[in-house]
Design a protein that fits this description.
two-stranded antiparallel ribbon; 4 helices; 156 residues
């Protein structure tokens, strides 16, 4: 499966939205993990743990072809990710202008973008555009998804 530019763009939008929306609540989790967990919670409610685990495991296998460093990551039986922090940096410490340390999150990694794009691509294939968009709207109610193109001439 080739990752379409549209799915990569949608993944980047979700990651950026999650980075902006959730900075204070869980600062030690990567933006990729927070985005993944939102997708997981939404899809487990829809398809159950086994259904989501199947999609996530397949997406990870596809992503590993493009980003071999993801081979360290594992999907558990309930669909959670393990060892993503071995591949993706979580936070960085900078000094502000006065010399004090401040914590800031690294931008979403290429690994995270590819993994989320693979999940989104599989959802589009298996569930179709309307149901995929409905699930995304449930997970990110303040975000619009109707101005994206899914890669086959349809909006996503």
């Amino acid at each position: 499966m080739t990752i379409s530019p549209e799915m990569r763009d949608l993944a980047q939008r979700l990651l950026a939205y999650e980075a902006d929306a959730d900075k204070s609540s869980r600062p030690m989790e990567s933006v990729t993990l927070r985005t993944y967990e939102k997708l997981r919670q939404c899809l487990v409610a829809f398809a159950g743990e086994a259904g989501f685990q199947s999609i996530a495991a397949r997406a990870l296998m596809i992503a590993q072809v493009e980003v071999p460093s993801l081979c360290a990551v594992q999907v558990t039986a309930n669909g959670t990710l393990q060892r993503l922090d071995d591949v993706e940096p979580q936070t960085k410490i900078d000094k502000d202008q006065s010399g004090y340390q401040k914590s800031g999150e690294d931008p979403p990694s290429e690994e995270g973008t590819i993994l989320i794009a693979c999940i989104l691509g599989l959802l589009l294939i298996f569930l179709g555009e309307a149901l995929t968009l409905s699930l995304l709207r449930n997970a990110w109610p303040d975000t619009t998804f109707d101005n994206r193109n899914s890669g086959d001439g349809r909006k996503a």
